[in-house]
Amino acid sequence: MIVDFHCHSNCSDGQLSPSGLIELAEERNVQTLAITDHDTLEAYQQNLKSSIKLITGIELSTVWNKIGIHVVGLNVDVKSKQLCQLVESQKLIRLKRAELIAKRLEKYGLKNALEEIKSKSQGSYIGRPDFAKLLVNQGICTDTNHAFKKYLGAGKTGDIKNQWQSMDEIIIAIIKAGGVAVLAHPLYYKLTNSKLRRLLIEFKNLGGVGLEVVNGYQNPDKTEYLSKLCQEFDFKASIGSDFHSHKQWKKLGCNSQIINGLNPIWAVF
Asked: Given 152, 207, 216, 250, which residue has the most CB atoms within 10 angstroms?
């Protein structure tokens, strides 16, 4: 099977509309797809039609031990009162965060950041990629990679992440919405083996069910490492492309054979 349980539309920081994302999934013979936009369910407020199986999803930002962590909620009720309230809270937090980033980057010459981003935004989402594009457009940075390396990456002046709802609140909201919580791209956080194990223990104790064993194209050694952790901690295995745009090297859709021998997350639905 070709499946994808982690991808983004232009309701957050993706390039394609939700319907465009579904059309691409159909072209690539994806059989099951979850659109997991950052901190928003706006994609599911649209009239989505598809010949493939569409699983509702969202990628929520949180913090663990002062480290920014992402949790994917799959098969959620998008009308769940608790989840919708949490999403609204995340939206306000994200706006406040954007205001802080704009204020900090103004010192480096970035002008009218929020106004420009809002005028070009497809929805309510404002993220660091929006600031990266603006830094390039205003000639402060050569490209978005340069923008993240100098201003927006981990530990840089535009990296503000300690405002999010707690991981406990995130997971509870996903469960209350009838969904399952999956730890997204575990290696992205650059944790030591011991710290990652501590995170997995806490994530599981809070009600987390899944571990993203594959995120886009990754080194087979990393997949093997995550597969072993998945088995050791008795998680369900999830896989996703983390697709954002055609310009990225990540392509929509993942072959489920990659996680043969593991308990797949889609068996829960």
From this structure: 152
Domains and CATH numbers, the chain: 2-83+182-268 (3.20.20.140)
Identify which of 222, 250, 226 has the alpha carbon closest to the alpha carbon of residue 238: 226
Pairwise CA distance, residues 208 & 135, whole Å: 37
- Please state whether the predicted TM-score (pTM) of the whole model is above 0.85: yes
Radius of gyration of the chain, Cα coordinates, nearest whole angstrom: 18
Neighbour-count burial of 209, counting CB atoms closer than 10 A to its CB (0-12 exposed, 13-18 middle, 19+ buried): buried
- Which are the contacts of 74, defined by CB distance < 8 A and separation ≥ 6? 5, 34, 36, 55, 56, 57, 179, 180, 182, 210, 238, 265, 269
Rounded to the nearest 10°, the torsion over CA 197, 166, 62, 184 is: 40
CA distance 235 to 171: 15
Q: Which two tokens stand for residue 32?
A: 């099951």
- Angle at the Cα of 132 from the Cα atoms of 40 and 114, rounded to 5 degrees: 65
pLDDT tens, N- to C-terminus, the chain (269 residues): 999 999 999 999 999 999 999 999 999 999 999 999 999 999 999 989 888 999 999 999 999 998 889 999 999 999 999 999 999 999 999 899 999 999 999 999 999 999 988 887 766 788 888 999 999 999 999 999 999 999 998 889 998 866 899 999 999 999 999 999 999 999 999 999 999 999 999 999 999 999 999 999 899 999 999 999 999 999 999 999 999 988 777 899 999 999 999 999 999 99
